Every structure is written in structure tokens, then in C-alpha cells.
Amino acid sequence: MLEERESPTAPRQQQKKPSFPVGEALHAYLLRTRRERELPVTYERLRRFADSVPLTDRRGRPSLWESVFYDRLDMQALHEDLKRVYAILRVDGDLSVMQHLYVDRIDFCAFGNSAPFRVRVVNAYNDNPDHFYVKRCDASRVYGLELEHLLSPNRLNYLTYGGTLVEEHIAGIPGNEFIERWLESPEIRPIRLAKELVKFNERCFVRLLGDMRAYNFVVVVTPDFEGAQIRVRAMDFDQQSYEGRLNLYRPQFFKDNAPLALFCAKHLRIETARQYQREEQVLMLQRATIIEDRLALLLNAMSAETLAPVANVHELRHALAEHYRRKEYLACESMGALVHENILSIRLAVGNSSHARAPLGH
User: CA–CA separation, 330 vs 339, rounded Å?
Assistant: First the structure.
């Protein structure tokens, strides 16, 4: 997040991103990796709620969520089945260690592409809550979750079942709230935060995760004996490899993130930023090498599917070819092929023969 920002231009008229079905190759991949599981609750079952009330946040302000209620005859069975879903997500279905849990609340948000349900599960012994989400299954989002799991330092639990997607809660301070309340906190060491922002920016760009506005990522602050450690994590994956504009995959260029970009410019020299960028590239290559076969399967499936309009693919491939100065991008006909080519590009940039030895497959 340390480059000169674009000149302001008139915003494009954006249409809501369509949902893409899970294709045969991705479905086979999900079965092979045990992401596809038979679940007792589907998204469509949760849609059959009888009533709802608006939900406020902890400050009493209106939120985008509403608490939903179901027919009394169905409620108990639904709650038991949601506990089973949570057990499958957390402990591979072992209900014996989860008998003390109960479903406290089910919330629904009509905003966004996935129109999610959020299920609040509470430990009856200590009142400690946890959440998970039930959403419409969209291939873009599934690819985004899996690429995050494989190429980032973060591991993700999620499950699919036909048209249903279940995700664990990603804990952290929402980016917009972090900017407002934490950015200038004396508890935050500026260099650590700036370093992580550069690394996050690079991860999003290489794996083509778009729309990382401040409210689509969280900041995880971990107290340490020499000041807090920082981790920036994506929490919304709807815009995985969809847009054609190059800078929509670079969080530094979003207006919402301007305070973070300026923060990096204030605290980092350009040489240091490039060092951190290269460090993250090397880490991504190391992760890719460890799970090379699995990543190849995923990218092969992704390359065979339509995840964006052809015009977006062509616009992006020309921009990436110019950015990396590699004409090989011009032969790419899918977003999956572009992600694959990006990984090859950083292998070449790093110039380490141990990483440049073999392609990931097509």
C-alpha cells in the first residue's frame, strides 16, 4: 500500500456480480478434499423463516442484519440440526463434545451477493458465543475461500452441500472500524501495521481477490510482550477473480482504504515496502510448493470454469501482461489461468530455481 494513487476518475456503473454455479471439476475437488459434505440444514431451509425483527449493533445503532424466527413446531428440530452442522464444521461431526451448546439466535442479512444467515452458538457452561454462516453456494466465493486457505497464512473451515455454503466466523476488527478507532492507537506499532498492509495488498493482487474495501477485511490484533502483532485477513470472497480492472485487486486504491495507504506512505520507505512485498511473494511460493498437487487441481478446475465475462478476462490479461511484462498472459482465456500465470510471474521475479522448477499444471 505504498504506490502513487490513481488520478480520480468517474466511477464505473457497477452491476451486481452474478452467482456462478459450482462446476463438475470444482465439485470433484470439493469431494476429494472433504469440503463437500451432506448437511442436515440447507440455505433454502433457513429461508423459510416466519418473521423477523431489525437487529442493532452493540452501540444501539441499526445494522444490516435482522433476527429471524421460525414456526414453533420447526424451531427445536432446526436448532438441533444447526448444532450438527456446527459439529461437522468444527470437530468432524462429533456431537459428543458439543452437547452443552445451544443455538441462541439466527440472523439474516439481505445485503450483498450471498444474503447470509449468521448462526450464534453459545456454550451453556460459560456463555461463550461463536458464530458460523450459511450462504448460497457461489463458485467464485468457494475459489476465494480455497485460495485463501492455500496461499495465505490463514486456515479456513468451510463446507459445501449442493447449493449451500457454510463458513466459520473470521474474528477481527472490521477494517473501517479499525481505521476509525485504532489506526493512531499507541498500542499499535506503526511499522508492524504498515508491513502487514503491504503483505495483504500483495496477497490479494497475486491471487486476484477483488473488492477489499475496508469493510471486507478484518484486522487481528494479538498482544505481545513487545507490542501488538498485526494480521490483516480477508473476510469476503464474493469478488474473487471477477473484475477486469487491474487496480480493483489492489486494496491500496480503494477510497475507503486511503487512510491506510497514507499511513504506509508515512511510515515506510519505498525500498522497505518492496522488501516486504518480496517477502510475501516468497512465502506464497513456499506455500504453493508444499501443496503443489492440490493447488494444481484447484487451478485446473478454475481454469475450466466461467467466473467472469470474457471482456473482463481480456481486459485483465492485457493489464497483467503490461504489469509483469510477460506476453504469456495474452493466451489466457479464463480467470483461473490468470491466477496460475500470476504465480508463475512471481516465481520468475523471485528467481529461485527451487521455486521456478515446475508449472502448476493446466
Answer: 13
